[in-house]
């Protein structure tokens, strides 16, 4: 028996399913939201859902891929721009802080997902690890332009600062959390010239 491949072509129904799932998964958690709810809120039929996503896990993976593309779209222009590496890192921290301060902030979509999928063999868990490895590698490459000897450790520190801020940002004052994140990242960077 062969399983039918999902229809990955862009369509309004697929876009509605993914947008709906992204909103409710992020706001309420993945396991707490069933396919029936996503189908109903997206105003599609179950047949349409299954034409685009063979199962819920496929929808969850699409949600994480969409979140990954969004983060990369924020970071990539900073990497391609003319900013010095320390300013790139400050801009990444500022973008994270902006997210923490945003309405409806519920933490990191990836950390939230991995908490619900703790099995390292799970495709969802693997998708989270792939995103995090890309983010760590990206930061390390920017830190290497400042000091290659400390780049890996500095990138790991940045990721830990980010993780802590993403967790604290939905529990405590987002302004204070954002300021703490930015100060922490500044502490990883050389002092600006003339300071």
Can you give a write-up of this model?
With 195 residues, this protein is mostly helical. It folds into two domains: 1-54, Arc Repressor Mutant, subunit A; 63-187, Orthogonal Bundle (Tetracycline Repressor, domain 2), CATH 1.10.357. The chain has nine helices and no strands. It has helices spanning 12-28, 35-42, 46-52, 56-80, 85-101, 109-116, 123-144, 151-168, 174-187. The mean pLDDT is 93.
- The helix/strand series, from N terminus to C terminus, equals HHHHHHHHH
Number of domains: 2
- How much beta, percentage-wise? under 5%
Shape: elongated
How far apart lie the N and C ends?
A: 68 Å
CATH superfamily of the largest domain: Tetracycline Repressor, domain 2
Structural class assignment:
mainly alpha
Arithmetic mean of pLDDT = 93
Strand segment tally:
0
Question: What is the class of the largest domain in the CATH system?
Answer: Mainly Alpha
Architecture of the largest domain, CATH level 2?
A: Orthogonal Bundle
Low-confidence stretches: none
So how many helices?
A: 9
Keywords: DNA-binding, Transcription, Transcription regulation
Organism: Motilibacter peucedani
Pfam families: TetR_N
DNA-binding region: 34-53
């Amino acid at each position: 028996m062969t399983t039918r491949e999902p229809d990955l072509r862009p369509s309004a129904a697929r876009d509605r399913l993914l947008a709906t799932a992204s909103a409710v998964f992020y706001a309420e958690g993945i396991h707490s939201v069933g396919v029936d709810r996503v189908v109903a809120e997206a105003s599609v039929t179950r047949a349409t859902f299954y034409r685009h996503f063979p199962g819920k896990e496929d929808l969850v993976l699409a949600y994480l891929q969409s979140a990954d593309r969004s983060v990369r779209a924020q970071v990539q222009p900073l990497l391609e721009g003319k900013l010095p590496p320390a300013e790139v890192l400050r801009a990444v921290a500022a973008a994270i802080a902006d997210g923490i301060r945003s309405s409806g902030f519920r933490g990191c979509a990836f950390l939230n997902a991995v908490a619900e999928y703790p099995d390292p063999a799970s495709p969802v868990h693997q998708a989270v690890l792939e995103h995090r490895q890309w983010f760590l590698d990206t930061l390390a490459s920017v830190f290497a332009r400042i000091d290659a000897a400390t780049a890996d450790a500095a990138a790991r520190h940045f990721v830990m600062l980010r993780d802590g801020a993403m967790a604290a940002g939905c529990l405590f004052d987002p302004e204070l959390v954002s300021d703490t994140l930015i100060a922490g990242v500044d502490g990883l960077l050389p002092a600006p010239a003339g300071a």
